[in-house]
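Thread title: Can someone regenerate the structure for this chain?

I was given the following input by a collaborator and told the matching structure tokens would be attached. They weren't. Posting the sequence so someone can regenerate them.
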Amino acid sequence: MKAINIRRVFRHTLPILLMAVAMAFGLWQWQSARALEMDLKAVREKAYYSALDGLISLETDLSKVLIAQSPGQQALLLSGIASLAAGVAENLAALPPAYGGDADALKFLAQTADYAKTLATAAAEGNMLSETDVEQITLLQSKCAELRQHLENGVNFDYDERVNAGEKMGIDYPSLMYDGPFSDGRRLGKARGLTGGNVTAEEAVAIASAFLGNERVLSAQRAADAGGPVPTWGVALALADVQITASVTQQGGKMLWMAPETAGFKVELDIEECILHAKAFLTSRGFGEVTDSFYQIYDGMAVINFAAVQEEVVLYPDLVKVQVRMDTGAVIGLEANNYWMNHGPRERLHPQITKEEAAARVTNRLSVKRVRLCVIPLKDGLGTGRTEALCWEFDGMYENNRYFVYIDAETGDEVEVLKVVPASGGSLTM
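Best answer:
Regenerated them for you:
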């Protein structure tokens, strides 16, 4: 009787067990497939954005080669172009062909890399670009722009229905805050502009309040100290309608930075009025003579870069950034790390070559609008051991694009070429 019952139970439960096993196996398969799908999506998205960033840089550097007038500078740019083209091809190859990575595009990028390597070798040997090379590079730049535009449109994104419906991806690139040229100057080492003894935390609170304007500050108190190469005291300041966090250097008691916690102000002033407010603020706070460089506008704030000036020479390493409300013109933000790291009197501000001699080193393809002397940071010292160079700055236009060319005022070498790239609310230099 027991055997009959066991067989009967087994006969009834076996299908249930088998169904449970099948369901579990099916769930495992579904989860595995889902994980694989998510991994593939992440890989494709990474490849997509990497390819797009590479194409932006590639297009920009190809245009800069046409402005660079020294073989050394051309060799550096062309070597970078070869690497960029290979990187773009590698990322496009990881995407479906509809993204732009078809056989023709990959062949084009491979040829671009090979051509750039050849030109870089010739430039390293002192050879300048021929007119044929200029025409070829111009064509390559145009084709890179077409490929970039195709990629921006997000053709046939299977994982994004908005693109399939014809809507653009709304790609945010490059995601840089508008800083202008040489904003990545020296930020490490001893702060050249900080002198004197240390201030206490309580003194820092009073300094921050006075810097912002005691009449504007409702309350000021200690806040968390920010890390970084320059020891600072943190301060929190309350204004009538905005909270501000600030950082005061322990040595010398200088404002290193301050930033509002909220934004979104009404735009009632134009950029010129904001520049005047910012410049007057810096002058009243002892920053000395400065000149405005570049700006960005966002959330009802104007962010303006200023560089120190000595003997009519612009000191780009001594950079300070100011945030101005566009409704009242009040200053509510400042970033002066570069300024305090680099600021101090310069010697050797008298050029060894004339403006006319420097102009002869600049390509005649550039329609020059302004020339002035400036000091710029050197990325690698150019083998001279120097960290800065006195340069003639040539500000001009080529094919509706703005460029800055820097000629060393001591040696006559072309040391830098920058291109101004339009961006939301301002411009970028690349």
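The first helix runs from residue 2 to 65.
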